[in-house]
What we know:
Layout: H1 2-7, H2 23-27, H3 31-51, E1 59-61, H4 64-77, H5 82-93, E2 95-97, H6 98-105, E3 114-121, H7 125-130, H8 135-142, E4 145-149, H9 165-168, H10 170-187, E5 191-194, H11 197-209, E6 215-218, H12 219-224
Parallel strand pairs: 1-2, 3-4, 3-5, 5-6
Helix pairs in contact: 3-5, 4-5
Amino acid sequence: xVKVLKSLGVEVDFIEEQTCCGQPAFNSGYQDDARAVAxxxxxxxxxxxxxxxxxxxxxxxxxxxxxxMVKVFYEELFKNSPELLNxxxxxxxxxxxxxxxxxxxxxxxxxxxxxxxxxxxxxxCHLLRELGVKDGPRELIKSVxxxxxxxxxxxxxxxxxxxxxxxxxxxxxxxxxxxKIECIINSGADTLVSxxxxxxxxxxxxxxxxxxxxxxxxxxELLASRG
Length: 227
């Protein structure tokens, strides 16, 4: 992601003090623990945004789930804390998922990438359902020179990961994953692209264990390719 952003003339800074956004605890029902971690996130990034000159400072994240935590669920987490809600709204409006940032902020679709292969795309749940991001990643993929894009069936169906869901309900999770793997194979693609590492680890692990020759890539990896 950093490589792509820098190639587009974006100055990138990584705040070493940052930690988790709090989503794992929040999704597991531990709201107090999630709130403590989220407060740290807000404090660090709100301060950084206030320190930046002008209006061109943004938070860019290569994950739809982390981005949706900040933009959607922080409001619920801090609904009884008016002072923190102000920070939430300030940070939230400056936070973008990677593909959304490229298209909505940089107004860019073609980043000069090149990749030879048949690519299909998996819609991660939070990116699609919470942030409503669907067409952007596909436009970015189709702009890559040498790529043939093939839409798979059930592209918007969950892969079965869902964080702790896959641990609590392994049989249901595996059944959902089996369905997703079948759709990938039937698409004829040699490469699967998505925008969330949880989905990619889940799907990629299954493909590897079953020795299915389909490469798994994050959208940022595809857009950073030059060959």
